[in-house]
Each structure stands twice: as C-alpha cells, then as structure tokens.
Amino acid sequence: MRKINPHDFKIARRGTSREINRQIALNLIRAHQPVSRADLARLMNVRRGVASLLVSELLDEGLIFEGAVGEAVGRGRRPTFLYIDSRQRCVVGVDIRASRTYILVTDLMGRQLGTVSSFQTPKDGDLLTQELARRVKQVLASHKDVGACAGVGVAVPGMVDLGAGSVLHAPTLGWHNVNLRDPLTALIGIPVHIENSGKACVLAQLWATRADVVGSGNLVFVSVSDGLGVGVVVNGELLRGKHNTAGEFGHVPLNIDGPRCSCGATGCWEAYVSNLATLSRYFGRELSDSGPKPTATFTIEDLIARARAGDAKAMAAINSSARYLGLGLASIINALDPSRIFIGGEITTAWSLIEPIVRSAVKERVLTEFGGSTEIHVVPAEEHPRLRGAVALVAAPAFAAPMVA
Amino acid sequence: MRKINPHDFKIARRGTSREINRQIALNLIRAHQPVSRADLARLMNVRRGVASLLVSELLDEGLIFEGAVGEAVGRGRRPTFLYIDSRQRCVVGVDIRASRTYILVTDLMGRQLGTVSSFQTPKDGDLLTQELARRVKQVLASHKDVGACAGVGVAVPGMVDLGAGSVLHAPTLGWHNVNLRDPLTALIGIPVHIENSGKACVLAQLWATRADVVGSGNLVFVSVSDGLGVGVVVNGELLRGKHNTAGEFGHVPLNIDGPRCSCGATGCWEAYVSNLATLSRYFGRELSDSGPKPTATFTIEDLIARARAGDAKAMAAINSSARYLGLGLASIINALDPSRIFIGGEITTAWSLIEPIVRSAVKERVLTEFGGSTEIHVVPAEEHPRLRGAVALVAAPAFAAPMVA
DNA sequence: AGGTATATGTTCCGCGTTTAGACAAAATCA
DNA sequence: TGATTTTGTCTAAACGCGGAACATATACCT
C-alpha cells in the first residue's frame, strides 16, 4: 500500500521485468547458496528456462560463478551449484570512533578476510583523512591476493549529509561539517561511502546472511557506547527521513527535567544509558560536570569487571543504566513496533547480568503484550557490527531491489 | 535501497510492467486531471501509443472516463480530457470517537457529497455496531443518486488488528478485543475497513490531492484530543510495524517521573498535552485523580474561549500544553526527520495563540537546524481529517503502487 | 549390462508489453 | 486553400515471461 509519488516515479521499461527478476535471483543465490538453477526455478516459481536465462546473465556479468557439481539427492542428473562470486574482489570497512579507528577487509559477502587493524583517531578531520587513506592503502597492499577493492565504507558516530558526503555533526569527535568522502575518494582512488554508525549497524543486521537473523525487515539497532546510536530499518529499507537524520532516539527524553545531555537538551535517553552516563553515575557526579573525564583512566569495561567481582556500587550503576535502557527501548517499541531489536556496545558484555532488568523495564512502559515480547538480541563486539555495517554500505547496493513505480 | 526479502518476494510476471505503468497513469490522472493522453505520454516519458493503450484499459475497467474535448492551447487537434470516474459510486467514512460517532459520504476522490451526520457513541461495542450499521444504511439510502458504495472506512481511537479486523484496545472507549469489521460487513453488506484514527489521519494527508500537500511521502499526523493519536508515513507508506501498532508516540515519555497516564505508565507525552491533561492542569489537579471528569461539563473549547477572553489561568494551561506539544514534536523530528508534520484536534483552534510557543519548544530539543524548521501544518476540524482518512482506507488501495520484487 | 525412471539444464515457440515510427484526424494560421 | 502542428491510432520490431519439448546425466531395477 505505497502511494506513487506523481512527481517522482519510475516507469516499467522493456527491461524492467528482467531487472526485477534478476535481482530476486541474485538475492536468492545470496541467501540460499549453494543453489542450482532448478532450485532457483522452484524458489521463484518460474520455469527452469527463465531461471537459466537469468543465471546466464548473472554469470556473464561475473556476479556469480558455477561451482562444483553437487551430489544428487535421489536419482537424476546432478545440479551445478551457483555461488555469489566474491573471489578476487574485496571491500574495506572503516569504523571511526572517538578513541580509535578500525579497519577491516572482507569479501562481497561480508566475510572477514584479514584481521581488524586500528589506530588512534586524530582529533582533526584533515589529519584523520590523511592517516586513514594511508592505512587503507597499506591494508589493501598487504592483501593483494584478495583482488580489486570494490569500495570503502566508513561508519561515523555522527550525522551524515549523503549528498555532500560530509559529517554534519559528530559530538564525540567534535566535528562540524567535515567532508570525508571526497578527500578520501581522491586519496585512495576507490569509491568511498559514508554513513552514520547506527544506520550502518542496522544495515549490517539487515544484510546478514545468517538465516536466524533474516527478519521481516523491521529492525532497530541500538548501539550503546560513548553516545547512543540508533539505526532503524522499515520494510527492508533504512529509515533516513528528509535529511538523513532520522533515528536519533538517543535524544528522545526519559525526563525533560533530567541531567543535561551533550546535545544541549536535558534528560535525553543517551544521558541516562551511555557509557559516560553509567560511569558518571558510579562516581556520583552529574554527566555535565566539568573536570577530568573518568573515561580516560577508568572505562566501562573496568566498571563491568568490578560489578562481576561483586562491587555493589558498580552493579547498582549498571543496573540503573539497564533499567533506563529498557525504558527507552519501550519507547522505540511503542513508536516503531519492530520485529527485532539489536543491542551493541560494551554493555553487551554484561548482558547476562542486566537482561532481566532490561526486559522488565521494557514491559513497564510497553503498550501491548506482544510489544513486551519483542525480540531483543545482543550483538557482541567480536562481531564488529559497525565494521560489518560499513562493509554493507559498499556491498549491499548491488543486491538491492530496483526502484520501480 | 530496499532489501529483497528472500522468503517473501514478488516476481515480475508477464503483465507486471503493464500493471506498474497502469497504476502510474492512474495516479497521474488523479493528480493532474483534467489531462489528455498526450499529456500522460509526456508526463510518463513514453510514446503516445503506450499511454493510449493504458488509458483504454483504464476506460474499459471504468476507472476513468473521457470528458469534454478541451480547448486547444495553440493549433492542432484538441485533446480529449480524462478524469477519474467517481460518478455513480461513493465511499462512506466513519469516525468513532469517545463522545460521538460521525458519518460522511464522499466520492472516490474524497470529495464530500453530503453533510456530516453524527450520533452519540454507545459505550458497548455490539450496540455501536448495530446503530452504526443502521445509520450507514440510512445515509446510503438517502444518497441513492450517488450510486453504489465501494466500501465503508472506519477510524477508531485505538489499536487495530488488521488481520482480525478487530479493535485490540481503545482506552477512551474502554474496549478490548472488539471485532468491528466482520459484524459491520455482515450487517451493511459492503466491505468494511478499520484502522487506527492516527493512521487514518496521516493517510488522508498522504492521499490528499491538493498540490501543496503532496510531499515527499515522509509525513506525521499528530491528533490532539482526549488522547494523542499519531500516524506516520515513511516513503509514501504507512508505518505499521510488526503488529500494526507502530506510531504510538503519545506514550513516549516526556518525564518518566511525571503524572500517571491512562495507559498505566507515567509521564507519557499524552499525559501532558491531551485535552484531558490541559483541562486537569487548568483545574489544578492530577490527570489520574478520581472523581467526576471535568470534560462532561467544561470542555477544551470552553477553555480556549476563556483564554481568548483574557483568562490568564486558562492561557497558562494552554501555553503549558503548547510547550509540551513542541517538546514531543521535537522527539518525533529527532526520531523520524519527517518532511512535514500535521496537527489536528481541538487545540488547532488556538493555533494562532500557541504556534510561537510550540515552535520554540521544538527548537529547544531538536538536534539539527533544519530539524527546527520542519514544516508544521494545522489541519482544522472543518476538514474532518479522521473522516477523510477513513474514506482513504477504502479509496486509496485502488491507486496504490503494485507490490513488486 | 541394459532398460527405465527421474532430475537438471537448454532450446524453441507463443504471447503480452514496451519501443519506434508512420499515418489519419482535427485545428490554427498564413 | 495549403502548410503546420497537435492528438490519437495503428503496425512492426525487440524483449521477456509462459509453457512444453528435448538432450543430458544419474540412480534404480531386472
């Protein structure tokens, strides 16, 4: 039930049907590989002839390849299996965070090809651009075997202007209107895609191939770190809004009379559950207090360790954050009714401690019974959700549905 | 950039291209009528031959009709103008509210055909069903000239289970799991569509034909009445979520330590800006206080009248609500970044008084500069947004984009 | 070992739809 | 009256789905 915009629509041309079915076939191969032409025909509910033609087109374009002949299940000719061709081409994912910047090389399916490397994030945008370009080229040079690089995806903890390819505002980095894409593209010589890290994270989940992760396409990713990043997917599409700034649930208030948030407003969700907020609570001071930040010496990991070791004050600080996390999640559930919520960030290492608190806080404010049973999944740091999201920025467009009508 | 769901997709069949282009043509006629075949061909950027075939198909189906031959602008053959055929068929819109239930007959374009009739809403679901069916049949009988009725749309102030056609929960009506659709369909003998009133309102705006209202398809409607209804449109599509309960921004908190809300939680936005909240504030009592409700004798309209007459206490109560309204709108802007927000409800009659307060409150909490300049439009009660939304439930599906890929 | 059954993949033709262009009809202007 | 322009229709070609036949390849049965 989508309305056709009478001022911006796409007609079905002679090749549109083919384009649509080609993308469907490509996605089915991606989701079900290894898969044969006959399998495809059954999955798509078309004749084998049509599937065969679609496959030969994808083969010609080099998007898929024919692997070994598979074992037949019963009798009959054995199928030739098809795979997404991610040989000899790779993608670089970059995750810029306040403290460090991480780099990872993957194939087109998002499978990790090397180890995650990192360096301290320079505070200055130009310096970071220089250093990042140097590092990316270095990483690619040391992975000559994986073939040509299709693109570089960059996840940034801030709002991104897609048109300009610049970072509008990244509070934790202290950036305003920093153009990253064009300088990086020029320096590296490979297309660069930038996106907000919350949006990148939810994209990573949307495009994950693990069967248990493939949901109905209504997903939310909440990344709890220094700030609170949120990415939303509706109907299989990233929620961008008019200026690509949608998804900032971190600054929806829990209490407008609450503590001051880094954004200038008061009582934002972020001001209650970010790592900084939790640490501040532990040290018994206001988030906005001046003076040396506790993070430099004492991190959220340390706090979680103390809590696990039996420090009641640490546990209390974390439990408070857990409750506030749940209360905010309830707002997201009430507002968006997603089929699944993912939680990322350091707090996930304490998930076993806090899960009951989070879930009961969700139930406290959720309007419906099924809202309270919304799936909440934790994404551990080892899965590098931001890096995988950055990779998805590059790899996913090739698999996206064609724009029609 | 939508992901194709590998478990639920639609293949392009032989007739899919035609189906797509047919819908586009239909929408263009709807948006630009009167319009000629040649105009359509130009608008769609196709040959006149194709446009002609599409048009003849639409003519055969009776969806459009050929009107008078238009005047030629320059020289050359004069065009035959095409119109959406809404002669001899009508739609009934029903708006169920806590106090009264309203009925309106329109044509397929949503143009009002008669006067709005209403009756007091029976508290009991079965009684309402009986009475409503009787009234609808009566209204249709008195409008024999407008032709056959294509369907009845019903807007309900509560959550709707689309599959069952029932109202899951309507707090102001005190309903739980009341099946409306099937009994009404059986009694009236015409297809009945039910939807939440906030969602219906935003649909009315999405499908409005006034050129200045046709936006980018990222819309929010906030209906301020006894409760707070919100409907959201993203990319030209209603935001439903997994259980069709998305959009409940009314129960996102402004302050979790705030007054108790009718939903059971505390400090919901609704508990600050609903008419009941404003009245309670005026009378200096808690929203949750027991005792006789003030609404029965003294309404929000009375309060606004007193404010306009110079009652400082009334003005203060309204101003408070205005500020809270703006603070909540800021959350919606931060969360969804819509291109346009519509405000409905009795409070709109005081818009000239409160607009500056609302807008400054929005700016107070909005994260970006352009967020603060998000368009906010008032929809006066005379436009009957809920009734027009109810009508859109019936009329819009015929114009919706086909599901593809 | 040979025949039969079954599954895969290819090929061919029918038909619907877009694409391109020609043509008739209708109206204006010189 | 004839040239020009615009509208609307018509025909042929290209493209892609729909359906079925055919060749290939493997397993099972006798």
Element layout with pairings:
Two copies of one chain form a homodimer.
Chain A: H1 16-32, H2 37-44, H3 48-60, E1 64-69, E2 80-84, E3 89-96, E4 100-106, E5 117-120, H4 125-141, E6 148-156, E7 159-161, E8 166-170, E9 175-179, H5 181-188, E10 192-196, H6 197-206, E11 219-224, E12 228-234, E13 237-238, H7 270-273, H8 275-282, H9 300-309, H10 312-336, E14 340-345, H11 351-365, H12 369-372, E15 375-378, H13 385-395
Parallel strand pairs in A: 3-6, 6-10, 11-14, 14-15
Antiparallel strand pairs in A: 1-2, 3-4, 4-5, 7-8, 8-9, 11-12, 12-13
Helix pairs in contact in A: 1-3, 2-3, 4-5, 6-13, 8-10, 9-10, 10-11
The structure holds a DNA duplex (30 and 30 nucleotides).
How is this structure best described in words?
2 copies of one chain form a homodimer. With 405 residues, the first copy, chain A, is of the alpha/beta class. Chain A folds into 3 domains: 16-84, Arc Repressor Mutant, subunit A, CATH 1.10.10.10; 89-204 and 388-399, Nucleotidyltransferase, domain 5 (2-Layer Sandwich); 210-383, Nucleotidyltransferase, domain 5. Helices cover 37% and strands 20% of the residues of chain A. Chain A has a 5-stranded mixed sheet with strand order 5-4-3-6-10, sandwiched between helices. In chain A, a hairpin with a 4-residue loop joins strand 7 and strand 8 (166-170).
Which CATH architecture of the largest domain in chain A is right? 2-Layer Sandwich
The radius of gyration computed from the alpha-carbon positions of chain A, rounded to a whole number of angstroms, is 23 Å
Overall residue-averaged pLDDT value of chain A:
92
Count of individual domains of chain A: 3
Structural class of chain A: alpha/beta
Strand percent estimate of chain A: 15-25%
Fraction of residues in helix of chain A: 25-40%
Query: Distance N terminus to C terminus of chain A?
Result: 12 Å
DSSP summary: helix tally of chain A = 13
Largest sheet of chain A, in brief, is: 5 strands, mixed
- Beta strand count of chain A: 15
Give unreliable regions of chain A as ranges.
none
| CATH uppermost class of the largest domain in chain A | Alpha Beta
Q: Quaternary arrangement of the chains shown?
A: homodimer
By CATH, the superfamily of the largest domain in chain A comes out as ATPase, nucleotide binding domain
User: Tell me, what's the shape of chain A?
Assistant: globular
Strand order within the widest beta sheet of chain A: 5-4-3-6-10
> Which chains have the largest interface?
A-B, 86 and 86 residues
CATH topology of the largest domain in chain A: Nucleotidyltransferase, domain 5
